[in-house]
Specification:
Layout lengths: L2 H23 L3 H19 L11 H24 L2 H22 L6 H25 L5 H25 L2 H23 L2 H9 L1 H21 L5 H8 L2 H12 L6 H19 L1
Helix pairs in contact: 1-2, 1-9, 1-11, 2-3, 2-7, 2-9, 3-6, 3-7, 4-5, 4-6, 4-10, 4-11, 5-10, 5-12, 6-7, 7-9
């Protein structure tokens, strides 16, 4: 993996943590995810006229991924309603790359021992953060939603990794994904919540747009990166977003930073370094 690609994925990880912080800080987490999806769709619509259509082979992946993302948004908002950001975000983002790596390994892909060492070390650090948060607060609420979210993350990560490669253009694939995944989520919110959702949207247009743009750039970069490097490596490195998420939680949500969390940061940094050297 080149140094430039490595740095770009880290920037995407920081943006991912930022839009999750925006969702967590909203009064209604589910409504906030709807605004984020809308905000992410807008730059996609601006770019699509200048991009080629994805190859036909990629459209089944796009459709399946859009449904996964819809359920992902609902589960994520449920986890954020029931648990702190440092707990739910860490669990869902820490478990996902491990599941992704196992699934790809079962599919017959091969990674170097150094790369697998990076994946395992990074996942250990992230899961250590989540375990510390649970032990400290005893907050088991929302864990099932966070774990289900992790399964969905692993599912759409693998789906989009292969879909982007079949599409012939990773940027076009990502833009179409943001458009397609907005439709079922917005339909669900308008059908289920109607006027309440619209009132909420009018009260927080700026955070929704900001979170959406951060979401668009973050996942768009990740999908593009998966066309340039092994999917498991990109997925694992992207989960360093949990470090940025923890720091943002400390500064903006006033959550505590403990010695165990510091040790977990060292593990994550070591795993990222191994991935860089692979």
């Amino acid at each position: 993996m080149s140094a430039i690609l490595f740095a770009v994925i880290l920037c995407a990880a920081m943006l991912h943590a930022t839009w999750n912080l925006i969702v967590k800080s909203g009064g209604n987490k589910l409504f906030e995810t709807g605004l984020t999806a809308t905000g992410a769709c807008l730059p996609s619509l601006c770019l699509l006229p200048f991009l080629p259509l994805p190859d036909m082979a990629a459209w089944p992946f796009l459709c399946f991924s859009s449904l996964c993302h819809t359920v992902y948004y609902v589960c994520m908002s449920s986890a954020y309603e029931k648990a702190d950001l440092s707990i739910s975000y860490t669990i869902m983002r820490g478990t996902a790359p491990l599941l992704t790596s196992v699934a790809i390994l079962m599919g017959g892909a091969v990674l170097s021992p150094l790369a697998w060492g990076g994946v395992c070390t990074l996942c250990a650090g992230i899961l250590c953060l989540g375990w510390e948060a649970v032990l400290r607060s005893g907050a088991w609420r929302g864990m099932w939603a966070a774990l289900l979210t992790a399964v969905l993350i692993a599912t759409y990560t693998i789906t989009d990794g292969y879909g982007a490669r079949y599409s012939g253009n990773g940027v076009s694939y990502a833009c179409w994904l943001f458009v397609l995944k907005m439709l079922p989520l917005q339909t669900f919110l308008l059908w289920r919540c109607g006027r309440a959702y619209l009132r909420y949207a009018r009260s927080r247009p700026a955070p929704g747009l900001l979170g959406g743009v951060a979401c668009f750039v973050s996942y768009g970069v990740a999908v593009w990166a998966m066309t340039k490097a092994p999917i498991a490596m990109v997925a694992a490195l992207r989960e360093t977003s949990v470090i940025f998420g923890m720091l943002l939680a400390v500064f903006f949500l006033h959550e505590k930073f403990t010695l165990l969390r510091a040790f977990a940061v060292v593990l994550v940094a070591g795993g990222a370094a191994l991935l860089k050297l692979a």
